[in-house]
Write a structure and sequence with these properties.
This protein is mainly β. The chain has a single domain, classed as Electron Transport, Fmn-binding Protein, Chain A (Pnp Oxidase, Chain A, Roll). The protein has 3 helices and 11 strands. The strands form 2 sheets. A 7-stranded antiparallel β-sheet has the order 2-1-5-10-11-4-3. Strands 6-7-8-9 form a 4-stranded antiparallel β-sheet, with no helix packed on it. Strand 3 and strand 4 form a beta hairpin. The longest helix has 8 residues. The protein is globular.
């Protein structure tokens, strides 16, 4: 397979940006994810690509409560805040010079207060193959804070993560 053609081809898949949060006991994590796809209407299922060498994935394997905060256009700074390990203190993630406010979701995982939408998730399946695992989750609850939110995308930030 031609490596350059593969990279260009796979980067044609459009991606939104989200913050996946997990809570397993006292261990809380937040990570920017972009490999997210709806895969069923009933029940509502998503597939999420999660790096296997992360605190988020360790929490998922430990049976964590999960939530996903959907980022809106113009919220690139929130996406960048969760590119590395982001400590959690009280009810805030501490990212460089910013404190990012959260509130507990109905399942217990934190959700970002500034996100235009969120969902709580329950893991149904894990596929551990490759550097990212495919985490299949059922959406158990949702919240909408904006009337007509527009998704933040990699293209808006002039970034690529794929190929």
């Amino acid at each position: 397979m031609d490596a350059a053609a593969k990279k260009t081809t796979l980067r044609l898949i459009p991606y939104g940006l989200y913050v996946l949060t997990t809570k397993a006991g006292d261990s809380v994590s937040g990570a920017t994810v972009n490999w997210v796809s709806q895969m069923s209407f009933e029940p509502p299922l998503l597939a999420i690509g999660v790096k296997r060498d992360t605190k988020s994935f360790a929490n998922i394997k430990a049976g964590a409560d999960l939530a996903i905060s959907f980022l809106g256009t113009g919220q690139g700074s929130l996406a960048f805040a969760f590119f590395g390990d982001t400590p959690f203190e009280g009810s805030e993630f501490i990212a460089k010079d910013a404190r990012i406010a959260t509130e507990p979701s109905p399942s217990g995982a934190p959700i970002l207060k500034d996100a235009p939408a969120w969902a709580t998730l329950k893991v149904t399946d894990l596929v551990e193959r490759g550097d990212h695992a495919v985490v299949v989750v059922e959406v158990t609850d949702v919240g909408l804070r904006a009337e007509a939110p527009q998704a933040l995308t990699l293209k808006e930030l002039n970034l690529n993560y794929g190929g």
